[in-house]
Predict the structure.
Amino acid sequence: MFRRWFVKKLIEDVTCAGCYCACDDIQVTIDGQQILEVQTTCSQGQAWFERAGETDQLVPRIQGKPVSQAAAIKQAVELIQQAQAPLVTGLSQSSTAAQRAAVALADQIGAVIDTGASAGTRALQQVGEATCTLGEVRSRADLIIYWGAADLLANARHRQTLETDSPEMTRKIIAIGEESARATDHADEFIAVEPQREIEVIWQLRSLLKGIALAGNEPVGITESQLQSLASQLKQSQYIVFFTGPEFKQGPLSHRKLEALSLLIREIQRERRCHSISVPASGETKGA
């Protein structure tokens, strides 16, 4: 009987797609067929490598009941043939090859494609986007705002990426989000804002930065002192970066929030540098 032996091999420059950071210094030990050990990665990256190593295919289901792949394909073909306005959606958790196949299928059957990143795409088409690289954030940003991006702020590898040795660099970090996602360990300040009030908060900031007094006695969604303080810090900073996480891009009006933030950033840029970086929920969201 022929037996093939595989020699263990250490690869020291593997890229992890478990989150936005895309760390490219991961050490992985393989035996030629599968991953044996993953080193120098965080818990989120470890979980991603474990999922990537799974070989079991997803179980097809019809009305919640497991069926064979042949039965699932037959049912899908029948539904597509009967459909008048088919929709291909999701794709954020699928591979690049799977996304290409889905787009090709949509072209063939005349379907509309709506991915998990469509809110950002819609906002981009309306008002554009000003973004930058992590290298620029590390070297220049003196005010970083994590809006709905508590998981990214809590990621030690991400924070290490932004560390600078420059003694002249002073930096303020602000986290904004729901009270349940309060992040104080790694932020200088936390501002609690309910998701349904985020658009109003952004528009109130735009008003203050333009010198327009707010109508009414009290701002909506945030205290007056917090709003005034945030506006003041935006005015005093020279290089501002917003990290917008998955939580910021949820809800029926998510594209409006992204549009409002893009308009705020555009207005800030008239006097100082300001950019936003969209943080996807998974490694393939941007690809979708």
Observations:
- The chain has a mean pLDDT of 85.
- The radius of gyration is 23 Å.
